[in-house]
Each structure stands twice: as structure tokens, then as C-alpha cells.
Fold this sequence. Notes:
By secondary structure, the protein is α/β, with parallel strands linked by helices. The chain contains 9 helices and 7 strands; from the N terminus they run E-H-E-H-H-H-E-H-E-H-E-E-H-H-E-H.
Amino acid sequence: MNYILFGPPGAGKGTQAKKIVEKYNVVHLSTGDMFREAKKSDEKISALMAAGKLIPDETVVEMVQKRLKKDDVKNGFLLDGFPRTLNQAKALDEMLKKENIKLDAVFFISIPHEEAIKRIAGRRVCGCGASYHIHFLKSKIEGKCDLCGSDLIQRVDDKEETVMERLTVYDNQTKPLIDYYKTAGLIVNIDGAQDEKNVFEQIAATIKNKK
Ligand code: AP5
Ligand code: MG
Ligand code: ZN
């Protein structure tokens, strides 16, 4: 099974990806996570991310292309945060065609912008990859990771001005992809404003039907 998790910043893509990976044993491919790793050694990427801007298509496509060639994706993958522009979507179609891989669905997790802002403002993350929310998904000890005990921090792009920029970038460059995938008959609408468990149930119901 090969799926795309699509939706605005803060929709819950990363949160749902963790649950899907646990239950269905697919590989989670988050371009955001890959760039957060890459930015440690790349100033250009670091600056673009901190400003809430997109990384140039060529860079993104090249990185995903390399990743999709690895053996572990053969059992199925879950793309999170890619594609984000029409050019990226077209490049992905080309890649998949070459490898003879089919997409099963594009889950469009929608939430109102006000809700996205609330979620992002309260998100706290750990260097180990764990993610929390100060109200909706609290760690057992405030400010400390349940998994490794490290201090929780705020993502640099989660500051209010940057969040607004990310939402604008989403509206202008990413949202048009909904029509692209509707035309391809792949869009599955998910109401992301529900609680985590309910959102997961909506996704799992589709996966069950497709299997
Ligand atoms: P990326 O990391 O992809 O960020 P994003 O799309 O902005 O999405 P987020 O990670 O902020 O939100 P999410 O939907 O994963 O929400 P989460 O589950 O964490 O990209 C970052 C940057 O990398 C980009 O700005 C760009 O610079 C670059 N980049 C990445 N991909 C690129 C590409 N393809 N092309 C070009 N550039 C690219 O949830 C958010 C919070 O809400 C959490 O605290 C969570 O606990 C809470 N929460 C989740 N679900 C619920 C719920 N149902 N109820 C209540 N709270 C919830
Ligand atoms: Mg994410
Ligand atoms: Zn941790």
C-alpha cells in the first residue's frame, strides 16, 4: 500500500503517520523530517525552513527520488509533506511510473487555519523525533520527553509569524494539488478537526477497504 498524507501545516500528518506506520508496517517518508536532518549541515535549507518557505523543487525531488529507490519502500510507503507543488506531483508521477508503483490514495486531512495555528503554537518536540502538544498530547512530566527524558523544544518554524507564512505558502502553492489528485480519483477527505483517535479511524476505514 502506498499513500500520501496531504494537508496544511498542523493538520496532524506527522501524528497520524506514526499511528499508520505502527499498524500497517509501511515506511514513513516525511520530507520535513528529512530536511530537519539536512539543515544541520546546510545553511540554505536551514534559512528557508526558518522563514517558512519551500525548498526548491529540484532539491526536494532529487532527495525523494533517491529515497524511493531503497528496498524498504517496496512493502509500502506513506509520504508526508510531499508533494507540495504541482511540479513535485508531476515528478512523483514520473518516478512511480518508472518503478511501476501505484498510489492507493491521497488522504486530504483538512482543518481550519485557526485550529492549525492553535495546534502548532502548542506543539513541543524532542530531538528523538517524539512530538507533543501542551494541551492535546501532554508529556508525563512537563517539558520532558516520555521516551528519552530530554528537554522538549519548539520547532524554529513554529513561531507565530512563520506559521502565518507557512499557511500562506500552503494556500498558494500546495492547495491547488487537491484538484490534481481529485482528477486522478485519489482524494479521500478526512476531517482533521476531530480528535486523534477519530481521525485515525477515518483513515483506517479507507485502508481496510482498499486492501
Ligand atoms: P513539514 O515538516 O512537512 O511541516 P508542515 O507541513 O508545516 O506540517 P507540520 O509538521 O507542521 O504539521 P503536521 O500536519 O505534521 O502536524 P502534527 O501531526 O505535528 O515541513 C517543514 C518545512 O520543510 C516546510 O516549511 C519547508 O520549508 C520544508 N519542506 C518539507 N517538505 C517540503 C516539500 N515537499 N517541498 C518543499 N519544502 C518542503 O500536529 C501538530 C500538533 O497538533 C502537534 O502538537 C500534535 O500533538 C497536535 N495534534 C495532532 N493531531 C491532533 C488532533 N486530532 N487533535 C488535537 N491535537 C492534535
Ligand atoms: Mg509534520
Ligand atoms: Zn525524546
